[in-house]
């Protein structure tokens, strides 16, 4: 199924840019001008030989006409249409719509993103109200103090012949409990105040850390030096890290980064990495580290040293993604669960067994990636447990390494936006399947 | 002979207040603050009624109630549950598990006294 993602618009842009008339391009490509006109307005789908022919006459690669920023917009609009009966019925005309009304399409996509963000905020606030241990402990404290005060005060008010010793005792209790109540109430107010100012409500701590790392291309030159600055200082100075939890996560990441850098010095590691064609198994052997550390180090290499982009995704024992460094063409879901067919999850089900696989992501032009995955126990609580597992998957695009000759496993990003109709691992219907 | 109440609660000032009210009404009041050993104390003292807080250190009041109801000798003992969460959920759970009565904090003294009298037929 071809997915032109505004291919027509691109053809028209390219043609006008090089000053070619529509009729001339149509003649060169062997089609009628009116048919080309329909194509350029995204009213007709285009693919195969005709696309190649048009691209040749426009002096560009066919892929330049089919890929690009438009794809992301289309994807977001598809998501926005999910579950909306009438919009879903109109899915076949989505590209035409986005092409003819780019402003409206942009608005819908933007609103959809905003709604998703707000839904997430509401979810977080609800979680906070119901599960927050501090809130529940504070409320318990306040209610206990109020109970004691009410009961004691009633005794003092209602007992006429109260013994002076008892009276003194109850007065002292009242005084103690009212102080406790005041403190508890103040703590609650401070906590709720902090909540309204907490920018972490806007996005999750993990997203803040990702923004922080993305801005630095996931590489920290200052932590590669022999006398690095204190990671806590880097965190304190980072503008992207606004919430307390995000700073905590970032600090843990940077400390681990520094340990990895000490065990695998940049110069020696990047040379070895290129020599081993980025094979994390060979590198783990060579540097005497566990494979997970080699994964992280490879993902922290600058692109010019790695010979291309390197993606990394990690999850905990529940399958929740805990680290995301995406690569072009292999998008990682922001919320919710990913594709159960990822080698990451195969590794999770077999701790310590290494997994190497070539995967193919569905889409207009299926892309292939070499992946390495492994699941290791963290031993955070020692051998007596509870056992904490961490799985990671290294993602190497075809441009970064040569793919080994092995059958490619079909995978997706997340079921909702995956076009693989007959997938046995499907968890919910795709919103794409009926769109074509 | 005096009727006996066992008060299982960990807030000292609440203990003091309840003890005072009930003692003035002629009850002998024993108290116990630790959740883990509370059931043993019930079995040992065999009171006429237990006032049981839900949030206790070591063990929840619900667990203690379950043990009391499962015990052949103590099964019919009246139990008045106290909780800081007057939630419907907790109330339902307490009723299902066989609490004789459920009272949300902050309670009034007269309410406690009336409940204790009523549940023991005093």
UniProtKB/TrEMBL annotation, chain A:
Pfam families: HTH_3, ScfRs. Residues 11-65 form the HTH cro/C1-type domain. CDD domains: HTH_XRE. GO terms for molecular function: DNA binding; DNA-binding transcription factor activity. Keywords: DNA-binding, Transcription, Transcription regulation. It comes from the Bacteria. GO terms for cellular component: cytosol. This is HTH cro/C1-type domain-containing protein. It comes from Rhodovulum kholense. The lineage of its organism: Bacteria, Pseudomonadati, Pseudomonadota, Alphaproteobacteria, Rhodobacterales.
Automatic annotation (TrEMBL), chain B:
The keyword Protein transport does not apply. The keyword Transcription regulation applies. It comes from the Bacteria. Keywords: DNA-binding, Phosphoprotein, Transcription, Transcription regulation, Two-component regulatory system. Pfam families: Response_reg. InterPro entries: Bact_response_regulator (IPR050595), CheY-like_superfamily (IPR011006), Sig_transdc_resp-reg_receiver (IPR001789). The modification 4-aspartylphosphate is found at residue 53. GO terms for molecular function: DNA binding. GO terms for biological process: phosphorelay signal transduction system. Signal peptide: none annotated. Residues 4-120 form the Response regulatory domain. PANTHER family: RESPONSE REGULATORY DOMAIN-CONTAINING PROTEIN (PTHR44591:SF3), STRESS RESPONSE REGULATOR PROTEIN 1 (PTHR44591). This is Response regulator receiver domain-containing protein.
């Amino acid at each position: 199924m071809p997915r032109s993602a505004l291919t027509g618009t691109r053809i028209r842009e390219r043609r006008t840019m090089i000053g070619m008339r529509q009729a001339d391009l149509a003649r060169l490509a062997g089609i009628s001008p009116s048919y080309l006109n329909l194509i350029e307005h995204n009213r007709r789908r285009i693919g195969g030989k005709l696309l190649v022919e048009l691209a040749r006459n426009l002096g560009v690669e066919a892929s330049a006409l089919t890929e690009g920023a438009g794809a992301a917009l289309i994807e977001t609009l598809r998501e926005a249409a999910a579950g909306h009966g009438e919009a879903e019925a109109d899915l076949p005309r989505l590209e035409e719509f986005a092409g003819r009304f780019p402003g409206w399409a942009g608005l819908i996509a933007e609103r959809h993103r905003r709604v998703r963000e707000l839904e997430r905020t509401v979810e977080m606030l609800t979680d906070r109200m119901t599960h927050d241990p501090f809130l529940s402990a504070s409320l318990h404290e306040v209610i206990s103090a109020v109970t004691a005060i009410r009961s004691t005060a009633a005794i003092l008010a209602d007992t006429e012949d109260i013994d002076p010793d008892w009276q003194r005792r109850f007065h002292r209790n009242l005084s103690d409990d009212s102080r406790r109540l005041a403190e508890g109430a103040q703590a609650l107010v401070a906590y709720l105040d902090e909540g309204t100012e907490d920018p972490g409500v806007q996005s999750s701590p993990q997203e803040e850390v990702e923004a922080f790392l993305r801005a630095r291309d996931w590489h920290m030159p200052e932590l590669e030096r022999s006398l690095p600055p204190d990671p806590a200082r880097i965190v304190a100075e980072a503008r992207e890290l606004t919430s307390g939890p995000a700073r905590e996560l970032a600090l843990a990441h940077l400390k681990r980064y520094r340990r990895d850098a000490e065990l695998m010095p940049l110069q020696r590691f990047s040379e070895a990495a290129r020599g081993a064609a980025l094979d994390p198994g060979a590198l783990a052997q060579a540097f005497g580290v566990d494979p997970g550390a080699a994964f992280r180090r490879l993902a922290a290499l600058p692109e010019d040293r790695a010979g291309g982009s390197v993606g990394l995704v990690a999850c905990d024992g529940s399958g929740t993604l805990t680290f995301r460094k995406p690569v072009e063409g292999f998008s990682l879901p922001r919320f919710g669960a990913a594709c159960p067919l990822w080698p990451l999850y195969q590794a999770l089900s077999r701790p310590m067994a290494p997994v190497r696989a070539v995967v193919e992501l569905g889409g207009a032009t299926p892309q292939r990636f070499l992946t390495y995955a492994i699941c290791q126990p963290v031993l955070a609580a020692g051998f007596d447990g509870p056992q904490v597992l961490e799985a990671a998957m290294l993602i190497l695009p075809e441009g970064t390494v040569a793919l080994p000759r092995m059958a490619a496993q079909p995978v997706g990003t997340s079921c909702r936006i995956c076009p693989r109709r007959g997938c046995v691992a499907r968890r919910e219907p795709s919103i794409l399947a009926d769109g074509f | 002979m005096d009727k006996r109440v066992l008060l299982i609660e960990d807030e000292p000032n609440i203990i003091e207040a309840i003890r005072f009210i009930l003692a003035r009404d002629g009850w002998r009041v024993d108290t116990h603050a630790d959740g883990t050993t509370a059931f043993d104390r019930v079995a040992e003292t065999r009171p006429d009624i237990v006032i049981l807080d839900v949030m206790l250190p070591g063990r929840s009041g619900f667990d203690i109630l379950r043990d009391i109801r499962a015990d052949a000798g103590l099964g019919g003992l009246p139990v008045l549950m106290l909780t800081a969460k007057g939630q419907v959920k907790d109330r339902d759970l307490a009723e299902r598990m066989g609490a004789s009565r459920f009272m949300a904090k902050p309670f009034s003294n007269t309410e406690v006294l009336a409940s204790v009298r009523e549940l023991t037929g005093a």
